[in-house]
Amino acid sequence: MKKIRLNPANLIRNTLRILSNLRRSLRRRGLETIVLTLHGSYPECPAPRDPLPFPLNLLPILPSPDPSLSDLEEGLNLIGGDSRVQNVVLKFQSLQADMATRYSMRRALGDLQEQGKHLLAWLPDAGMGDYYLATACDEILLPPAAHMNLLGLRLEAVFLKDVLDMIGVEPNFEHIAEYKTAPDMFRRTTMSDAQREMLNAILDDVYDEIVSAIAEGRGLEPDRVRALIDQMPLTAAEALEAGLADGVCYEDEIATRLAPERPEEGPEQELEKNAKNKKAEAPSKPVAWQEAARWLRLPRQRRTRQKIGIISLQGMIVPGPSRRSPFPLPLPDPYEAQAGAETIAQALRNAEADEGVAAVIFHVESPGGSPLGSDLIWREVLRLRQRKPVVVLMGSQAASGGYYVAAAADRIVARPTTLTGSIGIWGGKFSTAELYEKLGIGREAVQRGAMAGLHSEMSPFSEEERDRIRRQMETTYALFKSRVAEGREMTAEAVEEVARGRVWSGRRAQEVGLVDEIGDFETALEIAKELASLDPGQDYTTLQIAPAQQTLLAPPFRRSEKTALWNSQNSLLDMLRALTCERIWALSPWIIQLRG
Known about the structure:
Layout: H1 8-24, E1 33-40, H2 69-80, E2 87-95, H3 99-114, E3 118-122, E4 126-127, H4 128-134, E5 139-142, E6 147-149, H5 161-167, E7 170-176, H6 184-187, H7 193-218, H8 222-230, E8 234-235, H9 236-241, E9 247-248, H10 254-258, H11 267-272, H12 275-281, E10 287-288, H13 289-292, E11 307-314, E12 316-318, E13 323-324, E14 338-340, H14 341-353, E15 357-366, E16 368-369, H15 371-385, E17 390-399, H16 401-404, E18 411-414, E19 419-421, E20 425-431, H17 433-438, H18 463-488, H19 492-498, E21 503-505, H20 506-511, E22 517-518, H21 521-531, E23 541-544, E24 551-552, H22 568-580, E25 584-587
């Protein structure tokens, strides 16, 4: 007979949970309807935030960290596992999540529906992103004064050549290949045919994803959804008539709407009702999540000896350590931080050395950056893969260098709208000679070495210098393609066909062989279990593998250093130098953000 080995830690932990659940079960009523406010960005793998030094921690402008996507999913699991909960009201309030996150949220809401919960979305302001998520619910309600603003999608490209010519700045940039259009904003005045083709294809894929979700959720034909989008904006009454909403009411009227319908009764039956019955039949007051969480039953947990490690790469890829700012920056999310090759490599080595880690999920949220930094990370992924399975989970963007680091993994999982691929290179410099001349500033230089002024902004590239830059870029591009060919088991010709700098949506990338599966974290987790020969029905502990501490742009304040806060500019300069010290980039210059 096989002995059953009990884990004392699991026994103690679950005993405490049982005792806690006994207390939580004392609340018999009042949990029928839970209101969950959706607010913030719900990052998939939030970056750890160190305590800020005095006096920075006194600044009121610093926002509190948003709840993560895993926090939300854990809350939905608690709701789904408690039979007392019948309805869940989703209240949309400045939801800033990107399309990749909304895709995962939508799948989580679908799981909640399968557990028998009635989902209702209350939309004060119905934009494309919010409505895409709301269509996962059973009902959609709008306040009377609301408008439905499913206005469609739009991409705009900016071109700066004329203004640069006006001030005397000459862009000297090269790119490989025609779809690597990052430098076009500096050297062109209109969109190239290749850029227009690429952007239209991506826009089609994102639009089709949203239209398909709306059609499925509302029981409409896709063509009908497209026609309704072209008629926007609609009033709440018009949206109700078109079948895009199920009701029009204020927030305080939701409880009455969710109350069970009673059969019509005659006068005699009505007279027989007493106060107790009337009170029992009154609609249950919705409870906010913060209050309900104190009473929902906790599931049993089992900590396993083997774990699934999680490593997250977020931001622009650079050599050296990762850097981040404690302050919110006016930049798109992937550009707010720098993912240092040294920091990420250390995390990958930690996962390799940890005998308890059976497999690794490598989360990539990056537009790329340094080819050198990307190649150093690629090498560590390859080394780790030789010992343990590695599954890449792409966020809203894993393009250029972000795809470079993913190419060595066993499997790649992306969302339908993930921007990925962009296998190409670009680089160069700005020549400011004419600008200095206009300003009346004289500049002269002396040098040793024929190529010492290669990257100087005092003059444009000579033909020989341009040939040198082009040769360097071709070497880097060939290396990039070879990494993809090796990791994806593709021929050089097949890689070239899907490379040339082209950005693909996750759905299209799967079709051309750059991505293995369309899904989210749960998909990556299932694949990791399979590759590690773990029990697919077992819940394994996930472990966030933190690399060495990141470098803050504002260094710790020391009372003995009166100028420490002023010296924070040095850290910022280090960040800028890390971006500019290389003259060739594997970087995607744009992202798609869907807000509201």
